[in-house]
Amino acid sequence: MESLSLLMGGLAGALTPMNLLWVVVGALLGTAVGVLPGLGSSMAVALLLPVTFSLDPTGAFIMFAGVYFGGLFGDSTMGILMNTPGGSTAIATSFEGYRMAQAGRAPQALATAAIGAFIGGIIATTLVVFFAPSLADLAIMFGPAEYFALAVFAFLATSSVVSDSIVKGLAALAIGLSLAVVGIDGISGAQRFTLDVPSLFDGISIIIITVGILALGEVLHVAARHGRRSSHTGPPRSTGRPYLSRHEFREALPAWLRGTAFGVPFGIIPVGGAEVPTFLAYGTERRLDARRRSPQFGKGAIRGVAGPEAASNATSGTAMGALLAMGLPTSATAAIMLAAFQQYGLQPGPLLFDRNPDLVWTLLASLFVGLVVLLVLNLPFAPMWAKLLLIPRPYLYAGITVFCALGVYATAASITDLFLVLGIGFVGFLLRRYQFPLAPVLIGVVLGPLAETSLRNALLSSGGNPSVLVGSPTTWVMYGLFVIVIGYNVLQRVRARARLDT
């Protein structure tokens, strides 16, 4: 009850006219920056960091709350409409969201994302309010061996279900892992696949790979089919309905809740952000969909948008709790916000709740307010965003190409990056041409460094004894789930082949 009374006091502070204005401004600015390909929510916070230094700490962090969640929604908006996610946390949402947009259901996809973001964020923030002091207990359960088991589970479980061919799924995963190991090895200092190009010493940015595989690959794929259908019209006209029907809501609700369940614990586990839970949520929804009489994945499945989007925002909500309660930044955006706290002479952690209770509880209350503001702002504007798809196809995809180039160049001002994104875009085109799944490529890129670092740290800490990889109950659970998932998929494929033979 004490937490509830403190939250009510924080809510009174967050709802003052000036603080409410900062929430709205932050939500609008975060969304505006988030929709730009290659920038994303973390870049939105970084770009707007200097703007807040003229504000008092409470106003600054309330504005950050709006920017934080607004940037996440912007990431998903471009992923859904143009298959160009603003950040890596929206990659999983883009797969089915873009197919919904291509089928004329862009407003419904955006509404699903907005409601999912609201549900995931609200549940996660509520848990943070009541259980912030206990967050550390879950984080300490994960060491290098557990991270490696988690990565292996995500690699093989997802690769085995996103394609009709397990071989193609594993081949796509191998491409992603190959891209992930480019650069200088952090432990030995050896160059790997850099071709002695200095620009490759730091590896290939996830932004370059995401933009190349998803956006530029799609542009080349559309251009290659130029003569097969009219190129002067965009995708089918959307219905313009910025809300979900009762049937669509019932369809999406279980996925929202499952995605939230994936996202909540990952906000306090330092694996780099929401990529892991979003892909796990996507893979789970795809596996469940395969059991239905009429599978929808590949045609624009609403659950394929609902699950990852709820997971992403649930992760962000508990990441904020981990930052405040433990001083632990579990994502790039949280790390930037930690720097902002330190700029004001504040140190997040258990003592922050005692020394600056007004700031902490007003900030937590502003997260609730920011989520409501984003829902109110974005649901009515979904049809407006969807009208981008009415632009004639040649101009639309030319614009996407220009924004891809600008977004990639803006991150490091490197001409080499432009050649890289072009080459990776051609790889994305070939993957589409020969029907290889894209998700395993991106999973390999995102989780490859985590898997490699965790494996090597685990073996170093054990003196090279591989039994450390299965030495805890958490790893047993991970590998047990992996065996069950793989076994179930193999059984399903055998049954399907038997039915075809008969």
UniProtKB/TrEMBL annotation:
Keywords: Membrane, Transmembrane, Transmembrane helix. InterPro entries: DUF112_TM (IPR002823). Pfam families: TctA. It comes from the Bacteria. Residues 20-442 form the DUF112 domain. The chain crosses the membrane at residues 110-132, 138-158, 170-191, 203-224, 322-341, 361-382, 394-412, 418-434, 441-461, 473-491. This is Tripartite tricarboxylate transporter permease. It comes from Promicromonospora alba.
